[in-house]
Write a structure and sequence with these properties.
about 400 residues; alpha/beta; seven-stranded mixed β-sheet; 14 helices; about 15% strand
Amino acid sequence: MPRSPPSPRPSSPRPTLPAPPNRAPSTPSASAIRCPDTVLINANENPLGPSKSALEAITAIAKAGGRYDIYNQQEELIKLFANQNGLKESYITAWAGSSEPLHYTVLAFTSPDRPFVTADPSYEAGMAAARVSKAPIFPVRLTVDYAHDVKGLVSIAPNAGVIYICNPNNPTGTLTSKKDIVWALENKPKGSILLVDEAYIHLSDAESVIDLVAADKDLIVLRTFSKIYGMAGIRCGFAIGRPDLLRKLEPFGGDNALPVTALAAARVSLLDTNLVTERKKIIGDTRRNTIAWLKTNNYTVIGDSQSNCFMIDTGRKGRSVITAMQDKGVIIGRTWPIWPNAVRITVGTAPEMAKFQTAFKQVMDAPIQESADLLTPSSHREDLRTYVG
């Protein structure tokens, strides 16, 4: 049985989370990011950036940037994605990334008497939206192998508005089987929506659940070009669901024209038949090599990641490790309240991960300083507004 990380919070449900401060302490300083030698492996970005064909498409369309989508690119992008995935075009809406439809789905389907249910730990943006809708928040701990506990998610709130499943999960990179997701869909509370975030699915061997959308089930699936396609700063993504469900997102920001550069880059990225396979291998090989090095040096990696990120149990206060790594020019990801001694690492390029290894060993070889490294409850709070990856 996989080893659970030490010092977790109790698993009892809580209706709300502590009020966050104004800024997450793990957010790197602007001066650190501006340094040309800084390694940025903190936000689950793809260091490979947009593909060559995407860059060429952006350059070609830039001169039309003074117009709103004069070539009907948004319509053509949706049509292409629909054809590739066996969907009707009316089941897809395009957005500037997947964060917007994630927030809007939570706002549309939760309320003070319709809770938001999520795994713990998982991506926190949905909790931020639930606070806006004043919905109770019910976190459910991952299973012993770090999958979503679908039975726990389904049973914890009989009047749930949204049940959120990120697959592969952020921050652990671990998978939840399609069989379990189907079970959750079939057994969820009546009237609730299953929100399945497939931002990282191309990096893994996980099965998509888009086919369940085509079968008119009560779910919305999210996709983004921010991860394997390397377009985090360009902003393009999809919400995929029944038309009646997607219409409920419109009052929060629908029908806006996307940037013409994003539409052009996204379209050629979908048409590049080798892009996903090639990048999955590059990122996967680097991830596996890095994790092998960590395990060889007796560091504890949490779970079996199939994504572009993974978690390390540092055995000390994670925030102190983040600060020490930043001092060495390596910006790593944040902690989660349930695992305050664990940090998230994004997979960068091979040279970047080599720099990470050197810095991490130096930090972990340093003696623990009681004032900096002992866990204190007040340090576990996070600012959800800073979570972009």
